[in-house]
Amino acid sequence: MNESERYTDVVAALAGVEAEVSAAEAQGMLCGLFCSTETPEPAQWIAQVLDGLSPKGEPAREVLEALSALYQDTRDRLENDSLEFEPLLPDDDAPLSDRATALGHWCEGFLFGIGVAGSHDPAKLPREANEVVNDLTEIARIDPEAELDEDNEIAYTELVEYLRAATLLVREHTALPSSAQPAVGGDRADPDVLH
């Protein structure tokens, strides 16, 4: 299943149970939870995504299947040394406003997840990882009404790449034993894009 199909699948499953958490926010939350020395339990994360809901019947089965598949796919990609992780966001054909909204939701979810995981103790995080958390706080406030032009399209693409690299960086500093830290490759997005 490709990223676009996975996104559509999770969106439909969450809509089927009238979840308030979006697909992007759900995966952001999961990535935040993975920034811990303890691997999060799928049931714990699913319970947080479906907090306050009691889905039944076919919609319940569909949302559990979709979230379980998302958990496994995200875990596999985060733990893969080939750096295949991608944030779960709408396809590039979606309107920029939808993609920007999802990007903000993803960051909100990540910040929530890292808080629940107890990983964000500024005194324990390296400066670089703290900067990432601060940047994601800013990105969470993204303006979804930005007009569609080439500059904003480029800025969005750079933010998505930054999010991908930033997630791997924070995970490297919070979840992995220091002897097994992989080098996170790729260039960081231009920090001016965030301001």
Structural class: mainly alpha
Poorly predicted tracts of residues? 178-195
In whole angstroms, how far apart are the ends? Answer: 35 Å
Order of helices and strands: HHHHHHH
Percent in strands? under 5%
Evaluate the radius of gyration: 16 Å
Given the C-alpha coordinates, what overall shape results?
globular
Largest sheet properties: none
Q: What is the strand tally? A: 0
Average predicted confidence as pLDDT? 85
Helix content: 55-70%
What's the helix count?
7
Family: Belongs to the UPF0149 family.
Protein name: UPF0149 family protein
InterPro entries: YgfB-like, YgfB-like_sf
Can you describe what's shown?
With about 200 residues, this protein is an all-alpha fold. Helix content is about 60%, strand content about 0%. The protein is built from seven helices and no strands. The chain has helices spanning about 5-15, 25-35, 40-50, 55-80, 95-115, 125-140, 150-175. Helix 2 (about 25-35) packs parallel to helix 5, helix 5 (about 95-115) packs across helix 6 (about 125-140) and helix 6 (about 125-140) packs across helix 7. Pfam families: UPF0149. This is UPF0149 family protein.
Distinctive features:
195 residues; mainly alpha; 7 helices; globular; disordered C terminus
Question: Could you give the topology of this structure?
Answer:
Layout: H1 3-16, H2 23-33, H3 42-49, H4 57-79, H5 96-117, H6 127-139, H7 150-174
How would you briefly describe this protein structure?
InterPro entries: YgfB-like, YgfB-like_sf. Helices cover 59% and strands 0% of the residues.
